[in-house]
Amino acid sequence: MAKCKKRTVIENLMEKIASTFWFDEDNSGIQIEPAKKRIRRVLVCLEINDDIIDEARKKKADMIITHHPLLFHPIDKISNDTPVGRYVMALIKAGIGVYSSHLAFDTAPMGNNMYLARLLKLQDVAVPDDWNDDEDPIPVTDGMMELHEEEEECDSIMIDRVSFGADGPRYYQINNDKEDQFEYDTDEVGNIGYLPKAMNFKQFCTYVERCLDLPKHYIRTVDGGKDKIEKIAFCTGAGGDYVFRAVELGCDAYITGDLKLHEAQYAKAMGLTVIDAGHYGTEKIFTENLAAQLREEAAKAGVKLEVLEAESNTNPYTL
Fold first, then answer.
1. What is the per-residue pLDDT across 87-127, written as a single tens digit (0 to 9) for each?
2. In Å, what is the CA distance from 228 to each residue of 154, 155, 242, 249, 253?
3. Is the distance from CB of 37 to CB of 5 less than 8 angstroms?
């Protein structure tokens, strides 16, 4: 069995798991080069803090793989006086590398948004049409099948949908003669789908908390006044800007994080129910999700790689 070289992990993430569409616009990729030439153990987490670095040291991780980039923007100096500077110095001293997959993973075949859809068992979720443009489509995991590598010419426009259930994802196509159905392109970070059954406001809130494994009353809510909630938009992380898009698409509700006051006011005025499950609350799923996919891709490639899921708490809020 081959040992995992430094670039092998990155290639797995970029070519087998994450989208490459956002790489030019977002600081995804290697943030700190690891000291070792061969990577044998990685620690996966949402983002880096002091506790994560201590955990990586204790577990002898060669690299930390995060969702949120350690370096979002260029920095003028590296100093112990700032959190980022302190993290960078500690990581370099320990010889631990950092790789981040941010928007590239949000929009991946089973990235944050599609994994959220899976947890919520959403139906008729839009599938990005560009996932299958390449001659060799991006492999996906957990029973997801590759969609129509070659399509027969026809007069009507067929668009892809996926529904999630107890038996796994089910892919199919719908006819879009009028071209009025939502098609998810890679410049769309969020997505839409349908709940497994219609719910009222209280049922919907309880359902989201349970599916995302959130403490009771963790979420903030905007009651749009609808008696029945069925069609929903969703965007993990900070997606408050998309409240208008959700209304435009005819959604009954929207799930996201980091909703601002005025975005909440506009949503209520437009009759849109919103669940703000928090940036952390909607993206803590990254760790288990990416770790599972990375293990699978490493095994497929015959690469010896130990993938650890971080146990340290990266939620800065206290309930």
1. 999 999 999 999 999 988 988 888 999 999 999 999 999 88
2. 37, 36, 21, 17, 10
3. yes
What is the domain count for the chain? 2
301 shares its domain with 235: no
Rounded-to-integer distance, Cα 225 and Cα 16, Å: 42
pLDDT digits (tens, 9 = 90+) for 201-219: 999 999 999 999 999 989 9
**288-312, pLDDT tens digit by residue?**
999 999 999 999 988 899 999 999 9
CATH number of the domain at 128, please.
3.40.1390.30
**Total count of residues recorded for the chain:** 319
Residue 221, helix vs strand vs coil? strand
- 271 and 300 together in one domain: no
Structural domain range at position 245: 112-277
DSSP-derived secondary structure for 245-288: HHHHTT-SEEEEE---HHHHHHHHHTT-EEEE--HHHHHTTHHH
Alpha-carbon span 99 to 122, nearest angstrom: 31
Predicted TM-score (pTM) of the model is 0.87
- Choose among 62, 52, 139: nearest CA to 313: 52
**One domain for residues 271 and 289:** no
Bridge partners of 309, per DSSP, are 44
